[in-house]
Each structure stands twice: as structure tokens, then as C-alpha cells.
Write a structure and sequence with these properties.
This protein is of the alpha+beta class. The chain has five helices and seven strands.
Length: 153
């Protein structure tokens, strides 16, 4: 597996990973309505490539297949962290995370933040993150619980 920076040509593949991770991978923790509100489009929405391109985004790839991606904003907030459902628990997220944390450390920043799903929370806790607060965000009028977390570097 290779970890590399996002390129605009990755837009469709990364969106498919996001969509599959939410719609299939999150089934155990989120209702169908929550997953549909979280990932409402089954095709690439406008602005997706720009969103990932404006962040620092790393992509995990094997044999030209995008397995996952993770992005971080300039102020050290992890914005998106998704792996394909068949990659969950196989180390893909950890390799992406290591690239993100190394990037943040090189920037000289000392605190990282994330709004983590029920699925991502245990992963981040294993990396030394702490829960600041449980919260609920709304997407299309649907409540979706998650956790505001931080890590001091």
C-alpha cells in the first residue's frame, strides 16, 4: 500500500470510499436515515475535489485502487477520515493517520482536533486522543451523534 497526496483525479474514487464507508461501513452504529443524511448523493457532488484539494489530504492506494483517505485543515483539524468497508481493521486508517500526524508535527502545531463518528472514536482513542464532548450534528434535519476529540502533541 502506498500513501500519497490527493490529486484531483482521485475525486471520484475518494467520494466512492466516503459513500461506501458511510452507507455500508457505518451500518452497525447509525440508522439508515442518519447514513442517508450523512452521505446523501450516490454520485460525485460539486466541489468535492476542491474540498479535498484545499485541505492536506492523503490517499491510501494499492494496485491503483483507492483504499481510503484522510484530510486535515490548516488549523490541525482532521476533516475527513474514511476507508473502504473491506479495509476496516486492516491498518489502512493507521497509515493515513500517521501521515497526517507527521504533517501536523512538521507544521509545528501542538493540538489536533476531530469530530469523530462512533466508528472512528475507538480508533482515535488508540492513537492517544481524548473525548472533549459528545455532540449531535444535523444534516438535512437528521440528528447524527459524534464526538469532539483532541490530541495534544
Amino acid at each position: 500500500m502506498a500513501i500519497r497526496r490527493f490529486e484531483p483525479e482521485d475525486a471520484s474514487a475518494t467520494y466512492q470510499v466516503f459513500f461506501d464507508a458511510v452507507r455500508e461501513g457505518a451500518k452497525a452504529r447509525y440508522t439508515a436515515a442518519q447514513r442517508a443524511a450523512w452521505a446523501p448523493h450516490d454520485s460525485l457532488p460539486d466541489g468535492w475535489a476542491e474540498k479535498l484539494g484545499h485541505a492536506t489530504t492523503f490517499v491510501a492506494e494499492l494496485d491503483r485502487r483507492v483504499l481510503g483517505f484522510m484530510s486535515v485543515l490548516d488549523w490541525a483539524q482532521i476533516d475527513m477520515a474514511y476507508v473502504a468497508p473491506d479495509q476496516m481493521g486492516k491498518g489502512t486508517a493507521l497509515e493515513l493517520y500517521d501521515a497526517i500526524e507527521a504533517h501536523i508535527r512538521r507544521q509545528g502545531l501542538i493540538k489536533m482536533t476531530v469530530e469523530a463518528s462512533h466508528l472512528a472514536k475507538p480508533f482515535f482513542e488508540r492513537q492517544g486522543w481524548q473525548v472533549e464532548a459528545a455532540q449531535v450534528v444535523q444534516r438535512d434535519g437528521v440528528d447524527i451523534p459524534n464526538f469532539r476529540m483532541f490530541k495534544t502533541l
